[in-house]
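User: Hello! I'm new to structural biology and keep hearing that structure can be predicted from sequence alone. Could you demonstrate with Delta-aminolevulinic acid dehydratase? Please show me the input and the output so I can see what each looks like.

Assistant: Of course. The first part below is the input, the amino acid sequence of Delta-aminolevulinic acid dehydratase. The second part is the output, the predicted structure written as tokens.
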Amino acid sequence: MPYRLKPLLLLTLLFSQQALSCECLWQGSFSKAYKKADLIVSGSIIASKGNSADFYIDRTHLDRGIGFTEFNSTIRVWGDNGQLCRPKIKDFPVGTQWVLSLNKITGDIPSDGFNPDTPNISYGRVNDYYLSKCGANWLKLEEGLVTGNLVKGRRWEWENKTMNPVLLALIDAYIKEIIPEEALVEAAKPLTETKKLMEETKRFLREQ
């Protein structure tokens, strides 16, 4: 009879493997984590291969000019290769839209960062970008509305289904320090029945 691991032991082993491959401090919800980014952009995934994706930039919200100011309309973003504190690229399907808080790959690539036998699985190339999962560095974007772990969310969670969708313009204003974090907190609060009714009434009146 083959030996079988008990479910609890199996989960422990899986968690241990993940912990060994990625150890970092939680940098917070997007409203905190973005402060460590080199580039913040919104746009869409237009191609994906291995652990990288090509991202079309619709709008640049912040560019710290690390190395040089990004002028390309399409950039390459690298995710996890099994050993890095990054999300899996498969979680960002082609055609989906996102707000991404990115870091530029600079300096020397690690000696084990590129294997010519598996060129599509890599640490990334100099002047490309990577997405860290040490904080909520991405938000889902649909029809100008943003959802995700935007502000005061739980640790190690990247979705917040109770959050009220927030206008992308509001995110942009926050990143540019035009509005305070409190404005994001208020905008992201779950809709009450009264607030829902008011929003529906406003929408009805606009459509008349």
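User: So the tokens describe the shape?

Assistant: Right, they're a compact way of writing down the 3D structure. Reading them back into a model, for example: The beta strands are 39-49, 52-63, 74-78, 97-104, 129-130, 138-142, 145-147, 166-167.
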